[in-house]
Amino acid sequence: MDTTGKRYCAWCGAPLLRQWTQGEYRLCCNGCGRISYENPITGVAGIILSPEGEILLGRRARGETREGLWCIPCGHVEYNEDIRQALVREMREETGFWVEPLSVYEVYSNFHEPEAHTTGTWFLTRIAGGFCRSGDDVAEVRFFPGHGLPPLAFATDRLVIERLKKEHFLKE
Length: 172
Description:
By secondary structure, the chain is mostly beta strands. It is built from two helices and ten strands. It has helices at residues 83-95, 155-166; strands spanning 16-21, 24-29, 35-36, 41-47, 55-60, 70-71, 74-76, 97-110, 118-130, 138-144. The strands form three sheets. The chain has a four-stranded mixed beta sheet, sandwiched between helices. The protein has a three-stranded antiparallel beta sheet with strand order 1-2-3, with no helix packed on it. Strands 6-5-10 form a three-stranded antiparallel beta sheet, with no helix packed on it.
């Protein structure tokens, strides 16, 4: 996409036009005829719980989506990166903790950014090392009990937290 908002084909550079094909409107190349699929970005989030049953949240940094609001620490999977490796990297970058992914806890489609839909996978984790400090795209990290949560950035985090409460992972 250029500064005018026009999109171009990754294969031949010709303009992309939205056309009805394969049962819906898709971006199609005016030059080579290829379809440019608008697939969701893969995201990971780490559920880090304290021994007291509190959850670690990060406050979104300046310039980030939903700046100043809180979320379960998360990030995107890089191209050619295993999803669990992405989780370990993102948690280290954002929270200072080295984590061990234990299991997939929840998976949701996120529609909070109309131009960048994501599919998020929330993992239960165990702290394997490091120390609690904010970094990357969070300005602050802190543990919260289930009854004292700050304003959350993402509706899907709220769904995950409600499930954690219901299943008694998170202290009320």
